[in-house]
Amino acid sequence: xxxxxxxxxxxxxxxxxxxxxxxxxxxxxxxxxxxxxxxxxxxxxxxxxxxxxxxxxxxxxxxxxxxxxxxxxxxxxxxxxxxxxxxxxxxxxxxxxxxxxxxxxxxxxxxxxxxxxxxxxxxxxxxxxxxxxxxxxxxxxxxxxxxxxxxxxxxxxxxxxxxxxxxxxxxxxxxxxxxxxxx
Length: 183
What we know:
Elements: E1 2-6, H1 10-23, E2 27-32, H2 40-57, E3 61-63, H3 69-76, H4 83-101, E4 106-109, H5 119-133, E5 136-137, H6 146-155, H7 167-182
Parallel strand pairs: 1-2, 1-4, 2-3, 4-5
Helix pairs in contact: 1-6, 4-5
């Protein structure tokens, strides 16, 4: 089965990729599309780490290196409470459309690896998009691979980002820390 796996970053990709390919059931290629990452230097660090990982491992990848932060911000500006839905939907939709265009049997995302993401919401979006575009959504709870992924990425000396990627998660990460440090 040909599976296209959206990758938000290499550290989140390494364990799910190895898990899926080690099973031998899937031919897994990766897909980069992440216009939500802020600031640009953070985007670039993640992109360069992804490029180095896929090159080193010989992983086939499809890259959309369109840093269109303005479009992401425009979509969420007046709906910040819905930002995660918008982000998941946008990236999963781009993934399913790319999977369909390139005749993949299924699609998935490393967003399902993160212990910080909303799995029921991602699963619902993925399943709805699968029905709409007639490409199977491979839902798997990759969170069970969290610790091994952390260890693998550290062993590979990958850049490990300190927050989800969007400007809102950056604020939550550092603003909360600033408030807690002041107490």
